Every structure is written in structure tokens, then in C-alpha cells.
Amino acid sequence: MASLETAAEHERILREIESTDTNCIGPTLRSVYDGQEHGLFMEKLDARIRNHDREIEKMCNHHFQGFVDSITELLKVRGEAQKLKSQVTETNGHLQENGKELTTSMEELRQCRVQQRNIATTIDKLTHCLPVLEMYSRLQEQMRAKRYYPALRTLEQLEQTCLPKAGQYRFCSIMAENIPKLRIQIRDTAMSQLKDFLESIRKHSDKIGQTAMKQAQLQRSLDSSVSPQPRVLLGRHGRKAAPAAIRAGMGVNPLSEQDTGILDVEDEEEEDEVPGAQDLVDFSPVYRCLHIYTVLGLRDVFENYYRKQRRKQARLVLQPHSNMHETLEGYRRYFNQIVGFFVVEDHVLHTTQGLVNRAYVEELWELALSKIVAALRTHSSYCDDPDLVLDLKNLIVLFADTLQGYGFPVSQLFDMLLEMREQYGEILLKRWNVTFRQVIDQDNYSPIPVSTEEEYRQYTSQCPFQDPELEKLPFPKKLPFSEFVPKVYCQLKEFIYACLKYSEDLHLSSTEVDDMIRKSTNLLLTRTLSHCLQYAIKKKNVGLAELVQVIINTTHLEQSCHFLEEFISNITNVPPDTVNATKLYGTSTFKDARHAAEAEIYTSLNAKIDQFLQLADYDWMAAVPGGENLAASDYLIDLIAFLKSTFSVFTNLPGTPIEHATLPGKVAQTACMSSCKHISTSLMQLLLDPEVRQISMGALHQLDTDVKECESFARAGPVAGFQGDTLLLAFSDLRQLLDLFTQWDWSTYLADYGKPTCKYLRVNPHTALALLEKLFKPMKETSRKNNVFAQFRKTDRDRQKLIDTIIKQLRNLIVQHHT
């Protein structure tokens, strides 16, 4: 069985050797020698070789006769080939002999063709040279006629087109050498004309600006005649006059200017009435120079030079005279020069292709705008004449309208007008400040008594007040507020009228006027009136009754803010419910004043409480009391007696029994809660004071007794209106901390820390750790002194270990809280 498998394997290897490339039979032979039957394989291989040799011999014998026949035929063909070669050689000899005449004729024809080509080349060269000479002659004529831009075009065509075609001739070389000189001559001449142009526009800027502002003023007059409310049409955000339309009044034709460099006039009649910039300055030099430098490939150089020179001129124009603020004419001359400068720049922007781009003009305008605003801020600050301020405002409006018509953003100028409005308003605010203070000083802080219906109607007409219940009461009766309320309300309306006068002719829409008046009124409310109210609250010798009357007055003024907004809406014709309308801050102003009055009450009470607390003299190292009950500290008993007396008087303060009877009660509730919180916070600060380094459990028990006394005061309800034990919450932080230490309930605190249901939820680990260290310090020192006998006091040693464990866990809680 093994021999059969070996034979089959050898047969497969032989077939693989026969059918495989000789380069790949190495592995096959290796498999033979790796086996044990390589001798038998060699025998099979020799047998296979002998079989192939026999097959080759049979095949050769079969084809031998055909090979012999082929050799015989090849020998016959060789003889015929020799004959053919002899015939071809003979035929070639005859052909060479007969073609000698034809070769001669062809040579003569070639010579004729060469002559013909030379003649054509000469004609072509002359054809190219004649235009060069003609064009150079035309160039000389254009130079003599000072037509530099056409001359430059001719020069460019001569250099790029004609001279390359003409070839390398001496006259062409001379022309080529002269071309750079001619370009330099043209460039220098154009630059000279540009300098003259810059000087011309510098001289005429004032006149150009005056002309442009006259056009803007004329446009305003036309708009006013068309619309009964020009402010709506010419609003700062709603009006955008088309620059092209205004430039049309100057006779600008951008297309013709770009093509020829010369301005055309569109409307001669309009120019006769209001001349444009082209009537004062010839712009053709700048167009010509631009085109020349563009052709010379120096456009960037020209643009940089032009812009640099104009920036220098801009700095000169933007520098105001030192005495500009003295007269309106000084401002007018300053504005005319600036308008003239930017009208020229706008003209160049729209009549050239890139000499000045929009970004450059905007950058220049931003620079100018900042300097203009700075100059106006400086010089207008010297103006103390309201008429001059109003005239200057009108001039700035005309200046802004003029430049806005050319597409320049003027929002900063209008912001400057608002700043001037603030400056104008400052004079008014100072006047109203004096008026408000006089009203405050003259007020008696008492409800207004009215004896007749006429008096009642007089007061209610001065300020909005409606109280049906009060109207039913018989005379004499009292209004809840003092004289302060109607006087202040009337002065607020007078201030609004004064603001409206400044808002006229500002080219603002009704909404913007409304917004402007509201903002000015807000400034009066939040600054002037607020400070006056603070003055009234902070005055010396202001008692509790006066502070409560201030609260009542500010409450009525707060309620009148709605009517004040309606008053503004009526004079500006803007509905009060307009979207994005500015709301008056009177409500917040009077609320702040009321809160300040309340805070003054709370501050006074807290200051008095601090005086009592300064009498506190705790023995922080007191021993733990025995079985007797501790008594509250004397200072705390006096403090609680004072608070009871104060709140009793406070809740019985006079007030209208209808609307405002509950107001003192609310203030009393807040004052009571504030006082309790202040006491609790102060006691906590005493406990955690860094100067108190050691505390005994006896001191904690004494403090716990005082806190219980405070809680008893809170539970008794010194002021009506508190629900349940709400007032006790003021002492909850301190109560939980003291319970934790007096009851030594650390297991509950550490186990439930962080849970909403924790019994000591208000105890902070930092606070607990600080107090525990103060409490642990005397124990630790005592233990250190008695270290010799420490091993005999197991109770003290266990207590010390427990405290160490608690401190460690508290620190872990602090670390976890921070994490």
C-alpha cells in the first residue's frame, strides 16, 4: 500500500516538473530528497527521460524528408535573386544618366524661388517700418499738443506692437531708447498737474462745502413743503438720500468722466442756481493722471501718493481753530471745509475706478468722524448759552444731513447731538435739582388736609389720584400724600416740555422724539430726583414718621408713572403700547427710593441693635452649669424690650385707614425679620470671631439660653402678619448649630449630611469644624498637661479620639463639597 502511494507521488512530481518552469522546480525536488525513496524516483526519472528521447527520435524521422526538400528549393531561389540584382543595377544606371538635365532645371528653379522670397521679405519689412515711422511722427505731434494720455497710448502701441514687428534697426533702437524718457516726461507732467489739482481743491473746499450744505438745506425745505411732518421723512434711520441724486445736482456724469476725464454738465439751469463741485474745481487732471499712471503700470504708486496727500489735507481740515467755540460762524466754517473735502472724495470715488475705494473713504471718514466728535465735545463744552447750543445743534443736523446724502454714516454725529442734548439737559437738571430740593425742604411730611371740594379737585388735577372710598368721606379729610407729590409731578411735566423744545427740527421721527424725551425723563428720575429723594431720606433728624411718609409719597409717584407715560405719548403722538418703546424708569426709581427709606429704617434698627450687642460680655471659658436653670443675658433682655417697644409704636403710626393702613405693617414685618436676622448673624459672628480662640461648653449653654430668649420673642409675634413660625427661621442656623453641640448629636449630622431631611441641614461643615476646634482646644491642652496620667483616664482618652474622628470626617465633607 505504501509503495502505491509512493509511486503516485513520484508520478505527480514528474508531471509537475514537465509542466512547470525550471525556475520553480526547486521546492519540488527538495520534497523528493526530503523523502526516503529518492533512489526509486531517480529510476522513474531515467525511465521518463528515455521515453521522451524515443518520442523525439520518432518525430525527427517523420519530418526529415520535408527538411531536405526545403533546402533544395532555397538553393534554386538564390540563383534567381542574383539575376534580379543585376537587372536593378542596370536600370539605376540608365535612370541617373537620363535625370541630369532635370536636376539642372530644378537648381535653377530653386535660385528663382530664393530671389522671390527675398523680395517678399523686403516688402514685409518696409510694411512694418512705415507704420513705426508714422506712429512715431504722430507721437511727436501729440507731445507737442500736450495730449499726454493719447501720446502714452501711442507710445504703448509703438513699443508693444510696431517696434517688435519692425525688427532690429538702428532707428528702432533709437526710438526704443527714447520711450522711457518720454514716459518719464509724461509722468512728471501729469504729477505736476495733479499737485495743482490738490492745491485747487484745498482752496475751494470751503466753497464746495458751503454749496453742498446749501443743496442739503434746499432739499430739506422741499421735503418740508411736501410733507407736513418732515421728521418722519428725514429720520436718522429712515431717511437715506440717494448720493447719485445729489451728485446729479452737481452735474456729475460718471460714464463721461471715466471715458474722457472731463466732467459733463447735466442740468445747466440747476448749476446756475446752486453750482456744483465741477464749477469750482476742474477734476480732469486727476482723471488724466490716473489713466497715465495706470498705463505706466504705476497705478499703485499714484493711488498711494494721492491718498497720502489727501490724508494730510484731511488732518489740516479737521484741525479746528482754537476760538471756534466763540461764535457760530467758527463752527460753520469748520463744517464747510469738512463737507467740501468729503464731497470731493465722494466725487472722485464715483468717477474713477479704484483711485479711492469705498473702504478708503470709509476709513478716512471714520478718522474724520472721531476727530469731529472730539472737537465738538471739547468746544461745545465751553458753550453755556442755551441759544448757541440750539443753533449749533441745527448746524450739526444740517452738516449730518449733507454728508448722509453722500452715503456717509453719521450716526455718531447724531449720538453727538444726543450728548449735546445731555449737555443741554445738564443745565435743566441742575435747575430741577434746586427745584426738587426746595420742594423737599418746604415739605412738612404730613398728609395734605383738604377742607373743600375745590381744594380737593385742585390737588387731584395737579397729579393723578383716584380713591372712591376717600371721595365718599366728608370734608375735612386728608389726602394720603404730602405736598411733595403734586409739586414733583408738575415739575416732571415742565421738564418734559423743555425736552420737547430741544427735540424740534432734529429730523427725528415721532417715535424717536418720544424715545428721546423718555430717556431724558428717565435721567431726571434716576439721577436728579433719585438723589433728591436720597437727600430727603438721609437728612438729619428724619424720624420714623417722616420715613414712612416718604414711602407713601414714593408709592403714589410710582403709581403716577403710568399717567406720565400717557402724557408723553399725547405730546409725541406715539401710542404708549408701541413695540420697543422705552419705558419710564420712574417705577424703579420710586421703588428704589421707597426701598432706601425702608432700608434706612432697617439700618437704624440694626445700628441700635449693634449698640446693645456691644454690651455683650460672654465668659467663653465658663464652666458647665449644674442643675439650676440659666438666665438670659442682661443686654439681650434690654434689647428685646427695646424691640417690643419699637414695633409697638411702629405699627401704630398714623396712616390713611383706607389704602395705606397696611403699609406700615408690611414695613414692620420686614423690619422685624431684618432685626431678628441681624441678631442671629451677630451672635453667630460672636461665636466664630477669630479673636475668641477657645470656647467651653458652659459658654455654649449660655448662648443657647440667649437664643431661646430670642426665639421666645419671635414666637410671641411682636408684629402681626407672620404665618406660623416664619420669624423663627431667622434663628434656624444658629439654633441647629447649638443643638448639634449641646446635644452632641454628631452621628445624626454625619449620617444625614446632604439629605433634604437632615435635622441639621443649615449647619455648614466649615462652621462646625471651626467651632469644634475652638471647643477641642482647651481639652487638648488639659490632656497635654496631664499626659503622665492619661493612660489611667480612659473616658478622656475615648472622648479625645471621638473628637479627632469627627474633625477628620468634617474635613472629608469639606473636601467632597469642594470636589
Automatic annotation (TrEMBL):
What GO cellular component term, any one, is given? exocyst
Query: Start and end of every Exocyst complex component EXOC6/Sec15 N-terminal domain?
Result: 44-213
Q: Which GO terms describe its biological process?
A: Golgi to plasma membrane transport; intracellular protein transport; vesicle tethering involved in exocytosis
Q: Name one Pfam family in it.
A: Sec15_C
Any idea where the Exocyst complex subunit EXOC6/Sec15 C-terminal domain is?
412-774
Which superkingdom?
Eukaryota
| Record-linked Gene3D superfamilies | Dsl1p vesicle tethering complex, Tip20p subunit, domain D (1.20.58.670), Exocyst complex subunit Sec15 C-terminal domain, N-terminal subdomain (1.10.357.30)
Q: What InterPro entries does the record tag this protein with?
A: EXOC6/Sec15 (IPR007225), EXOC6/Sec15_C (IPR046361), EXOC6/Sec15_C_dom1 (IPR042045), EXOC6_Sec15_N (IPR048359), EXOC6PINT-1/Sec15/Tip20_C_dom2 (IPR042044)
Sorted UniProt keywords: Exocytosis, Transport
| Role of this protein | Component of the exocyst complex involved in the docking of exocytic vesicles with fusion sites on the plasma membrane.
Family named by the database record:
Belongs to the SEC15 family.
Name of this protein: Exocyst complex component
